[in-house]
Design the sequence.
């Protein structure tokens, strides 16, 4: 519009010069040249101003190509209704998505590297024990049948430990890849919790245990995963508290939520460790938990199953007084409460 208006003005000036100078060719040429220079100057200025956001977008793209994903097209806010402005807004949105995707990928790669390093470390100790006993046997350092039997018992124990670790790793790997919710079906959570408590009582018959399970609580979920969740919560008590330390398991439901509470009267968790207990391979008491056969994955499995069922987990622990872990399953939607 600006260029068209300037051209019209130049033509009008030429016509005026024609009439005012009685057709003097020199005057007409001077007016035409002046008009063309004015049109060229104004057109150059307008085009440069309009293309400045594109130049900025190109510079931003060059910076991003060099590896700096924090750059954005800041000129977008100056003319959001124009084609260039809409292009800048779309480019910024695309850059936000690319940066988020790359950040997520880098975080995933970091977790994978740490996971592999931790798994390798955990497998190294039992493998070294197996190698040691095998070398003792090969070199004849086991003098009698009793020594051989002891070595075989220790090797079997280490093999069982590695088996539990590998099974836990495979379970977490399946949870990491789990995206399909079509397999979720009604699960009698009351039965799952009650049977898991019976299993725990068979393993530790002497532990004082309070079980309060509301009957008829059914949620949408995966029964195997929910059994693993409860088993790991109870196994965590067995691993980290004395055999005579009391514990309590409670399952209740309201219109707002289904709540599973598992509490023990053990030594508790230090405050500086409470933010990490759901991380894989983390141990607040590294030496003791490894000595009794813990893998450091129990609460990680609890956290993974909780997330897959769109639930929330809450930890409340006081050193010297015990630990409470509360799982809250939301009602309705993909994970609804069904009363029977």
Sequence:
């Amino acid at each position: 519009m600006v260029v068209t208006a300037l051209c019209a003005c130049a033509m009008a000036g030429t016509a005026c010069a024609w009439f005012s100078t009685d057709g003097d060719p020199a005057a007409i040429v001077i007016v035409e040249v002046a008009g063309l220079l004015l049109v060229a100057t104004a057109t150059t200025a307008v085009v440069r101003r309009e293309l400045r956001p594109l130049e900025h977008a190109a510079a931003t793209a060059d910076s991003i190509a060099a590896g700096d994903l924090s750059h954005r097209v800041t000129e977008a806010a100056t003319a959001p209704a124009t084609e260039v402005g809409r292009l800048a807004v779309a480019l910024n949105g695309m850059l936000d998505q690319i940066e988020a995707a790359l950040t997520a990928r880098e975080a995933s790669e970091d977790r994978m590297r740490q996971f592999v390093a931790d798994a390798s470390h955990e497998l190294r100790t039992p493998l070294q024990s197996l190698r040691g006993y095998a070398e003792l046997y090969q070199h004849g350092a086991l003098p009698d049948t009793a020594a051989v039997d002891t070595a075989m018992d220790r090797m079997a124990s280490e093999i069982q430990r590695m088996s539990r670790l590998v099974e836990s790793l495979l379970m977490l790997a399946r949870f990491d890849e789990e995206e399909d919710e079509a397999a979720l079906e009604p699960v009698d959570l009351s039965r799952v919790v009650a049977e898991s408590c019976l299993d725990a009582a068979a393993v530790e018959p002497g532990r004082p245990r309070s079980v309060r399970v509301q009957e008829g609580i059914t949620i949408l979920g995966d029964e195997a995963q929910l059994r693993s969740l409860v088993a790991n919560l109870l196994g965590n008590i067995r691993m980290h508290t004395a055999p005579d330390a009391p514990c309590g398991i409670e399952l209740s439901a309201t219109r707002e939520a289904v709540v599973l509470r598992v509490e023990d009267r053990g030594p508790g968790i230090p405050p500086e460790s409470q933010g990490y207990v759901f991380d894989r391979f983390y141990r607040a008491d590294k030496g003791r938990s490894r000595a009794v056969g813990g893998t450091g994955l129990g609460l990680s499995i609890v956290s993974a199953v909780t997330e897959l069922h769109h639930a929330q987990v809450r930890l409340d622990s006081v050193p010297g007084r015990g630990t409470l872990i509360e799982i809250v399953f939301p009602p309705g939607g993909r994970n609804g409460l069904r009363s029977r």
Notes: Residues 181 and 334 are 8 Å apart (CA to CA). Confidence is low (pLDDT under 50) at residues 287-292, 332-340. Residues 2-71 form one domain. The longest helix spans residues 83-138.
